[in-house]
Amino acid sequence: DTAVSQTPKYLVTQMGNDKSIKCEQNLGHDTMYWYKQDSKKFLKIMFSYNNKELIINETVPNRFSPKSPDKAHLNLHINSLELGDSAVYFCASSHRGANTEAFFGQGTRLTVV
Amino acid sequence: KNQVEQSPQSLIILEGKNCTLQCNYTVSPFSNLRWYKQDTGRGPVSLTIMTFSENTKSNGRYTATLDADTKQSSLHITASQLSDSASYICVVRAGRYSGGGADGLTFGKGTHLIIQP
After folding, report:
1. pLDDT (tens digit, 9 = 90+) per residue, A4-41?
2. Which is nearest to B75 in space by CA: B85, B63, B83?
3. How far is A65 from chain B (nearest CA, A)?
4. Mean pLDDT over all residues of chain A?
5. How many interface pairs between A and B have CB atoms less than 8 angstroms apart?
6. Is B84 helix (H, G, I), strand (E, B) or coil?
7. pLDDT over 80 (residue A45)
8. By the 8 A CB rule, do A93 and A104 touch?
9. Across-strand partners of B41?
10. Is there a contact between B109 and A55 if contact means CB atoms under 8 Å apart?
11. How close A76 comes to chain B (CA, Å)?
12. Least confident span in A56-65, A73-82, A100-109, B68-77
């Protein structure tokens, strides 16, 4: 049983295109996240959603927009893709609380050409 | 600035041997420290979570230690197996965040561990 699943796993697209990455969790968690893993391998948070409310929005370009139709889904829309957007994007989910586990999806490798 | 530094960057050991990975952090205020295992092409999977009051925590052949005074942690792997080949990431949660488990996390770059038969 997949806990946090995201699609697609690989995405190759041209500069200027608009694309979406989907994420679903079946763990009953109330908070979902998007993380970006850059070429230096550091993971950095982009967005956090709790009960359809954006909690954290780190300094990411407004070309990136999270969309949460319900508690189990958090999709990432990216407009006007740029070369620098190439990275691996991870969806994650957790319960509220500092010491709760965070579960990550398998990642989506985005390549902008 | 919150930072997490790990050493070594990469490590190769023979199957069956033990190894220890190191983590130093400057995250403040401290909430908890986690170790994650990330297989190639997969997302990170949690191994342990330790709070300020915990010095040692085990998960099977993985044992993590925490010294909150010196802001250091280690992950010891006993009797390594081929399946242990992965990146091991040290992650520290800052205490000022009130959200969920994945809020306020500062990730290290990871130690790339290769187990050879």
Report:
1. 999 999 999 999 999 999 999 999 998 999 999 988 77
2. B63
3. 18
4. 91
5. 85
6. helix
7. yes
8. no
9. none
10. no
11. 17
12. A56-65
Q: For residue A1, what pLDDT is reported?
A: 64
Compare CB distances from B102 to A30, A33, A106 and report the shortest one's residue: A33
Å from B44 to nearest chain A CA? Answer: 6
Q: Which amino acid is at B59?
A: N
Pairing of strands B19-25, B4-7: antiparallel
Q: Do B107 and A102 touch (CB under 8 A)?
A: no
Could you tell me the two tokens for A106? Answer: 């398998």
A41 CB near a chain B CB, below 8 Å?
Answer: yes
A109 pLDDT tier (thresholds 50, 70, 90): very high
Helix (H, G, I), strand (E, B) or coil at B82: helix
| Angstroms from B2 CA to nearest CA on chain A | 12
* Interface list for A 44-103 with B (CB within 8 A): 44-45, 48, 50, 55-56, 90, 92-103
Q: What is the pLDDT of residue B98?
A: 63
Higher pLDDT, B56 or A50: B56
Q: Quickly count: other Cβ atoms within 10 Å of residue A46's Cβ.
A: 18
Tell me, what's the pLDDT at B74?
98
Q: How many residues does chain A have?
A: 113
Judged by DSSP in three states, A80 sits in coil
